[in-house]
Amino acid sequence: MEASKGKLTIPKPNPPVVGEVTHHSIQLSWNVETTEQRKRPQEQWLKISIEEEDPKLHTYGTIYSGYGRQHVVESLEPRT
């Protein structure tokens, strides 16, 4: 992150890396700089959010929001 005129510029993150996949779960991880990030106030930490779409209602719901480096999405329906 770079400060310019009092604002932080956040570079576009890389897509998540897919880890173990089963019929009912998928492991996602992402490479974020946590060491340098944690030296700043928490309001400036990069927070990851994962959402899922409800195809019937065309709405989105948050299934993960936090500062971790990986998350396992569980209770997935097979072949969807």
TrEMBL record:
Fibronectin type-III domain residues: 12-80
BP terms from Gene Ontology: regulation of apoptotic process
Coiled coil (residue ranges): none
GO CC annotation, single: nucleus
Protein name: Fibronectin type-III domain-containing protein
Species assigned in the record: Pelodiscus sinensis (Chinese softshell turtle)
